């Protein structure tokens, strides 16, 4: 800055940084314990002369080295040379691999080659993900308690059970406690172990942030760090959701690639975006366009039509799809700011009144009750009484569930004690809880009566703080946040003890108002598992959520399938010979055709369905072959994603599908373990089927052993 000439900006200058000698490792994304992995190590020489390089793979307890730990090669100027080290991983998790390369004062170069010793060296450390064999399984036990001053303590017993064929070393168990009903929700952005590849599923990265922000702001617990994290996740979710917006203002599961907008999803997005406006920027013009699209679709009788595919099967219940959908749309419009007196809402309520005499299923009763309660309509009381008569009351808990004739009842060869309810049961129970809270504004006893519902809902939570799928998670978190605001107390001082003192496992947590939102955790040693009885004792005053999360692998899934799933592989017919080799010259397998056949076995239809193909270690998918599947409208494939070793394929529903794609070997891994293919209903994940598959040497079409290397 100059007083005479003003602001001056210099011309840009570039600085090129160049490393004339370095080493790199080529690793597969992941391997299975016990597989034989070739670690390709490449050294690059950009010095002016040839160098004699010795490369060493450091010994480690994490793996067994099958080859020599040291290799010496001649690398001339502007050339690269690769060698391989064969290892077998022995430990699970991310294991470190370190290779050191340096020039040495000896020669393996051809006679007459000009070389020199410069004393150069380089080292590189990479981590290799080692997974256990088999298929991952998990379950969660939750217990929620509120102690008052006149209550001395609370006692519970957890059972950490395991199947007999659990894979050795795969078990991981942790106990935790948090002093706030909404505490687990702070894991916003990572509430489900499910893919988020469509417009509805993406909302799991958006809507929960609204409820946690509303709750923490109301009770005065919103910190800057939590606020910033939630806003960042919500902003990203908002921007991503706009990619599923159609030109007419509606939303659909896969945006403009669908033939029309989806009424249910559009209403869900409108509600969520409007509720987020106090926290992040949401374009008001976008909201108006979306709202106009919805209201213009309303029929003269006040009902809203089921535009687009209704992939939320619970709404098909015992009444027409149209009336149940109308209740959902009316709720969304009111929660987005439309007044109950608006003619659009009044028309929708008239539609629902006309249909209410035909209600037959608990889901519709729960949704209708909440709709009329939200509208402050007196008819809510009549619906609420009918809903109460349908409640399931067991062991001090209250919930609602689908009628027995349509309730999924998969048989399992082994089931832990803490089976999570279907998503539709969780969702309708959450609607019932919100109705309790709304009607509790004029009848305070209803808030107290809601505790058994809250306890049942908390028992359905997964290890991440979510529930089963997107919609039940969003509705349940909204319900729990509304309830938590009504019963919040800053006075909390609890001692939560897992296990007995001086036993094989014992851990005590102190929960106070200062750390009420912090999830305190302790790992249970796998050496003492399973545990028939793990006592839990809570003393003091206040509320706390206790949780045990258990995960493990089994060799294969033996549950009764909801799909008929067939998998086979064969050498690709359009490839005449080996086309790939590794950097070290090893011949890789010919590309393989991967055939999948899936058929729904139930009488009704599936919800949105997902096929998850885990690739064998060292293999990758040919994306061009997946793109060709996307160009087959009759197949019904709406989207695909690749996450690590997984290929995830989305379908609106699956009745019967058959398709194939190509995979190829990119990294040499020998003695590969079986991998899995799973098809499941996205909204009822227990409705699934899993098949294991292997790739054998005779499928390759070439000798997979490769050539000898230095």
Automatic annotation (TrEMBL):
Gene3D superfamilies: 1.50.10.20, 2.60.120.1540, Alpha-macroglobulin, receptor-binding domain, Immunoglobulins. Keywords: Disulfide bond, Glycoprotein, Protease inhibitor, Serine protease inhibitor, Signal. It comes from Desmophyllum pertusum. GO terms for cellular component: extracellular space. Belongs to the protease inhibitor I39 (alpha-2-macroglobulin) family. Residues 606-693 form the Alpha-macroglobulin receptor-binding domain. CDD domains: A2M_2. PANTHER family: MACROGLOBULIN / COMPLEMENT (PTHR11412), PREGNANCY ZONE PROTEIN-LIKE PROTEIN (PTHR11412:SF171). Residues 1-57 form the Alpha-2-macroglobulin domain. It comes from the Eukaryota. This is Endopeptidase inhibitor. GO terms for molecular function: serine-type endopeptidase inhibitor activity. Coiled coil: none annotated.
């Amino acid at each position: 800055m100059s007083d005479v000439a003003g602001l001056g900006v210099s011309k840009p200058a570039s600085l090129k940084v160049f490393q004339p000698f370095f080493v790199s490792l080529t690793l597969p994304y992941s391997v299975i314990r016990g597989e034989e992995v070739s670690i390709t190590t490449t050294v690059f020489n950009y010095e002016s002369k040839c160098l004699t390089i010795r490369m060493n793979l450091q010994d480690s307890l994490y793996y067994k080295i099958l080859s020599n730990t040291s290799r010496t090669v001649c690398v001339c100027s502007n050339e690269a040379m690769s060698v391989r080290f064969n290892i077998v991983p022995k430990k699970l998790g991310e294991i470190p691999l370190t290779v050191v390369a340096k020039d040495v004062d000896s020669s393996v170069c051809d006679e007459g080659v000009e070389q020199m010793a410069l004393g150069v060296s380089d080292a590189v450390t990479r981590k290799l993900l080692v997974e256990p064999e088999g298929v991952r399984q998990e379950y969660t036990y939750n217990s929620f308690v509120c102690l008052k001053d006149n209550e001395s303590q609370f006692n519970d017993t957890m059972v950490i059970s395991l199947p007999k064929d659990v894979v050795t070393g795969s078990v991981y168990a942790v106990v935790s406690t948090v002093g706030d009903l909404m505490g687990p929700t702070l894991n916003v952005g990572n509430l489900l172990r499910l893919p988020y590849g469509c417009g509805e599923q993406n909302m799991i990265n958006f809507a929960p942030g609204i409820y946690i922000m509303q709750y923490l702001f109301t009770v005065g617990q919103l910190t800057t760090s939590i606020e910033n994290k939630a806003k960042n996740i919500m902003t990203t979710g908002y921007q991503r959701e706009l990619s599923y917006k159609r030109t007419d203002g509606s939303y659909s599961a896969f945006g403009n690639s669908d033939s029309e907008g989806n009424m249910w999803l559009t209403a869900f997005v409108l509600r969520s975006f409007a509720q987020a406006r106090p926290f992040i920027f949401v374009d008001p013009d976008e909201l108006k366009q979306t709202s106009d699209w919805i209201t213009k679709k309303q029929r003269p009788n006040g009902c809203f039509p089921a535009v687009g595919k209704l992939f939320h099967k619970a709404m098909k219940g015992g009444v027409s799809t149209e009336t149940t959908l109308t209740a959902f749309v009316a709720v969304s419009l009111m929660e987005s700011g439309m007044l109950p007196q608006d003619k659009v809402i009044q028309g929708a309520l008239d539609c629902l009144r006309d249909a209410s005499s035909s209600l037959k299923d608990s889901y519709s009763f729960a949704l209708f009750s909440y709709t009329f309660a939200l509208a402050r309509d007196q008819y809510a009381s009549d619906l609420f009484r009918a809903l109460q008569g349908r409640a399931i009351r067991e062991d001090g808990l209250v919930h609602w569930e689908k009628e027995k004739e349509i309730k999924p009842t998969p048989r399992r060869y082994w089931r832990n004690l803490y089976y999570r309810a279907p998503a539709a049961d969780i969702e309708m129970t959450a609607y019932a809880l919100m109705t309790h809270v709304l009607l509790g504004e004029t009848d305070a006893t209803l808030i107290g009566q809601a505790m058994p519902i809250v306890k049942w809902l908390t028992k359905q939570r997964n290890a991440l703080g979510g529930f089963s799928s997107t919609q039940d998670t969003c509705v349940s978190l909204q319900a729990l946040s509304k309830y938590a605001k009504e019963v919040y107390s800053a006075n909390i001082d609890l001692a939560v003890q897992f296990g007995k003192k001086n036993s094989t496992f014992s851990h005590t947590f102190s929960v106070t108002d200062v750390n009420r939102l912090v999830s305190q955790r302790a790992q249970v040693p796998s050496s003492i598992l399973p545990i028939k009885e793990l006592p839990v004792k809570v003393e003091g005053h206040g509320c706390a959520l206790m949780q045990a999360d258990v995960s493990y692998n089994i060799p294969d899934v033996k549950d009764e399938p909801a799909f008929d799933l067939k998998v086979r592989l064969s050498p690709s017919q359009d490839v005449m010979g080996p086309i790939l080799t590794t950097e070290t010259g090893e011949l890789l397998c010919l590309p393989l055709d991967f055939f999948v056949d899936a058929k729904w076995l139930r009488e009704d239809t599936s919800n949105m369905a997902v096929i998850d193909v885990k690739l064998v270690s060292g293999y990758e998918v040919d994306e061009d072959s997946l793109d060709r599947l996307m160009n087959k409208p009759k197949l019904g494939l709406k989207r695909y994603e690749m996450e690590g070793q997984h290929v995830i394929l989305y379908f609106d529903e699956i009745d019967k599908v058959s398709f194939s794609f190509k995979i190829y070997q990119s990294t040499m891994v020998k003695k590969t373990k079986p991998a899995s293919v799973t098809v499941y209903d996205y909204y009822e994940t227990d409705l699934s089927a899993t098949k294991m598959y292997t790739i054998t040497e005779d499928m390759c079409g070439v000798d997979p052993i490769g050539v000898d290397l230095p």
